[in-house]
Write a structure and sequence with these properties.
The complex is a heterotrimer of chains A (180), B (323) and C (552). Chain A is 53% helix and 0% strand. Chain A is mostly helical. Chain A has one domain (29-156). Chain B folds into three domains: 2-92, no CATH class; 114-187, no CATH class; 232-323, no CATH class. Chain B is built from 13 helices and six strands. A two-stranded antiparallel sheet of chain B has the order 1-2. In chain B, a hairpin with a 2-residue loop joins strand 5 and strand 6. The longest helix of chain B has 26 residues, at 2-27. In chain C, strand 2 (7-12), helix 1 and strand 3 form a beta-alpha-beta unit. Chain C is built from eleven helices and 18 strands. Chain C is α/β, with parallel strands linked by helices and 552 residues long. Chain C is globular. In chain C, the strands form three sheets. In chain C, strands 1, 2, 3, 7, 8, 9, 10 and 18 form an eight-stranded mixed beta sheet that branches. In chain C, strands 6-12-13-14-11-17 form a six-stranded antiparallel beta sheet. In chain C, strands 5-4-16-15 form a four-stranded mixed beta sheet, with helices on one face. Chain C has one domain (2-551): FAD/NAD(P)-binding domain, CATH 3.50.50. Classes of the chains: A mainly alpha (180), B mainly alpha (323), C alpha/beta (552). At the A-B interface, helix 1 and helix 3 of A face helix 1 and strand 4 of B.
Chain lengths: 180, 323, 552
Amino acid sequence: MLNRRQFIQRSAVCSSLFLVGCRRMPQQSPYRIFSPEEAGCLIALCEQIIPADDAPGATEAGVIYYIDATVARYFPDTKDRYHNGIASLQAHCQAAHGQSFEALSPTLRTEVVERMETGSLPPEHWETISPQAFLTMVIRHTMQGFYGPPRHGGNRNYASYRMLKLDFPLVVGQNRYSHG
Amino acid sequence: MKKQLTCAATATLAIAVLFGGYATWNTLDPANTCAACHEISPSHATWMQSAHADVRCIDCHGTALSQGLHSLREKGAMLLSHWSGDKRHEEIRLSEEQMLDLINRCAECHRAEYAGWQASGHAATYREIFTDLEHNRMEKPYADCFRCHGMFYEGDLHTLMSLEGNPEDWYIYDERQADRPAITCLSCHEIHTPNPVSRRKAPAETADLSDKAPYTALYLRSDKMHLRSDRLIPVTMLLGDSILRTATDPGTLLCMQCHAPNSRHQAGSGDDRTTLGEHAGKSCLGCHSPHSMRTPRVYPSIHGKGGDGLSSGRTYSSRPRLP
Amino acid sequence: MDKQQHVQAIVVGAGAGGGVAAKVLATAGMQTVLFERGGWPVYDAHINDELISQRMQVLDSAFGPDWKKHPRVYVGPDGSRTTIHAGDGSYNHVAACVGSGTVSYGAMAWRFMQEDFRLKSIYGEVEGSTLDDWPISYDDLEPYYEQAEWEVGVAGNDSLNPFAPPRRRPHPMPAFEYNRDGRYLADVCQRMGLHPFPIPMLRNSVPYNGRAACIRNRTCCGYACPVDAKNGTQNTVIPVAMATGRCEVRTGCVVAELLTDDAGRVAGVRYFDPEGRAQTQTADVVVVAGSATETARLLLNSRSRLHPNGLGNNHDCVGRNLQGHAYTGASGLFDWDILDLTGPGATMAICDYNHHNPGIVGGGLLANEFYMLPYAFSQSRPWGEARWGKAHKDYQRQNYYRLGRLLGPIQEMPMWDARVTVDPAVKDHWGIPVVALSGSRHPRDFEHCRFLSARAEEILRQAGAVRTWRHTGDTPPASFYGPSGGQHQAGTCRMGNRPETSVTDAWCRVHEVENLFIADGSVLVTNGGFNPVLTIMALAYRTAEYIAKHFR
């Protein structure tokens, strides 16, 4: 007769055999909708939109996590616009500079974004989404991720609120009333 | 008969495999089990660096069987939301009940701290806070009470208590809830924090303390997460129109979140306890010991007109003073 | 279909008007059912979250309605039809929860001026507009304004406002103190010979009705109050109605249709309960208070033999004259911190530009604006400023406390073609035809916006703003050119003495249906140069009192 402890130990041995098979799961991307490569490009683009100086920029504030989480949850329809936009941007950078966007020098990156805004990039890589439309979407979401509340994944450690000297959480006590 | 035996044997084996498998699962390195999922891995990584890396996941989070049906449902829901792609329930948090169980786990090691907290005003229960007649005659409890009292309460004011009729008639529905403490360890402490024991023990001269996480963090009910107290934003305090010198150490910043002034940031207003006079700029922890809140002596003038000068954490101005 | 026990009164919609109506009927002794498609607001569901707040609605609408279940259709000037959700600007959204907009509003408590009831008599015909007088005067409504102020709770002091209409009784609570920009701009206005005064607010300046005083929270307009110091119907009149034991609030219930009998009277409503089951509730009298868009939709969706075009619509008036408020004014950057973030932001107003300004029909108030949280601020730039990069970040950092704003709602000229219809194809989650919005705005509105924004800019310049710009409302987005409405939506079932040009009579009773009343912004003939909530509440008090007298 087995006692309870032995029973558990033995059955553990049996079933651990079964567990070994699925022990090593493939390492997942930390993002829901982006591949690590796409995320690399998008992080660099967001950092152009809100660059770090003596206050954190988009990267440190975790804007990518905001975009990843909210597109997955609230705007699944815009997923393809991101995939296409990032692919177009990378295709342009490869063709024009022989490098991916995130590998370009900071000045060159700024120049590319400026040309995206003015629409002066060669049109051949942008069949599915225009550079302006893509940039406008990324700007909007970057601003939301950086300046919105941290509960959606961005604005880590209240980075933007600290920069704006906005005491958050709001420090406010109870009312005090005199007796009577 | 034989058929029945086979059935029984198969069933026993199945159950054995199930339970055994689950027991094994729980003993494995979490990196290979739950923390392999992207929802949990960042939290796991911080825990690995923390002073609590020797405390197992299941000691705080429990297993699917540790709290009966509740935990079975909870862990089941976790799996379901993971596999169904329903991202609404992605964040994994302790329930208030788990969190209260956790206090006992904390107390196993941090006995003195636990005893100090228990003796302090911060151990006040929901009953003491939410059915304080003197308070309730002045104003009705509201949602913002939970910002400091009952941060982990899973519901709103109307699920907690009846607010029908006069303050004398108001009561907390669930007696068990009424007896629960409303400010607990996790109100001011985060467990998953990069604060390794090794670094803590290093001699101060040689250790790089620049990014040393403080021991405290404020739990933000609004965002359902902790914020390290050294990252809290200092508040400019005023006395009339003049700016006061105030302490900006993490401890004081943390205390000020609940012991807070009115919107004009006037010293002594609201629940504020800003130190004045020769004690201006002094950290709360310069006098109060962190868990019991006791002070070596009573200096009635330190906190200005709003304060009662006592060491108690009981801040409602009309409360009877502690002996 | 299940049938519920007959009651004396049904109120559809638990917002400003519906909540008041339910309270009056229940306290008068009538068994009442109050229907609300949303639920009770839960503070923890939306704490301080700018991105779902009523002001932004970037990710969701914290106070409802559900984006997926309640679509609408926007009809463009070219006739194109687009299906839109509540986060879309052209949706003309009103919160769907108990209390509706009164949970999260800025809570300005304006009485309309005497002139606002007689626009046509004072200003004459306006070409292209259906501008008209009200069938009632300010004096008819004055006692009910007072009742709303005392029962719901208003803090204010009219004595500093020479343009305030006469009142018999002062506000029940003292006025709020100015915040920093309010105090400063009030001084400037005074020096300019204008007449600044503290804005009357449906908010507790002192403890009132057993609830706390305001803590001057900066996240006020667009958010629920953390200390319950903001007075909406959800924490004032609706609880009073429920406490009588005669008012049942049915949340999560979507009213699909008003049922009529063979005599053409309304017999009750058909609705869907929270489980989606079709139900019927009958009553002696029905009050509809679903907002100007949804009330019109409900009437238009209630067709029968005697009312083939929808209830009350035999003269094709239901859904017409949809109006709202173009918000206009100016912004000014200062070289010092003009803001102190003492909530809610708006504290000071002037009514110098309401009426009696040459060439202007109506006009509007100007007030210092509610605060913006950082994301809203990142979207608020003078034309031509950097949209991204270090320059954008620097602007954000330098100016967050330095932007003074003076804005106000302009009295709009009602348009016959600005209207709510029901879409022939698009249905909501329950299969009910949805609102379609079409039409345009009157050119005079733009003129009036230019006038008021120029005045606002002048004040900001006088105040020493180093850079100013106007919000005239005639710049894109294109949705602006669509019908007005928004959270101040009004006019779609206007009051009047002639059934040919109005939907309800002077008691807000639908002309063609003896026991059907309307108690929301729909009945407003014109929308004033003021936030309309107190007027909606006052009218609801008056209407419900009449019902209680005649139907109890």
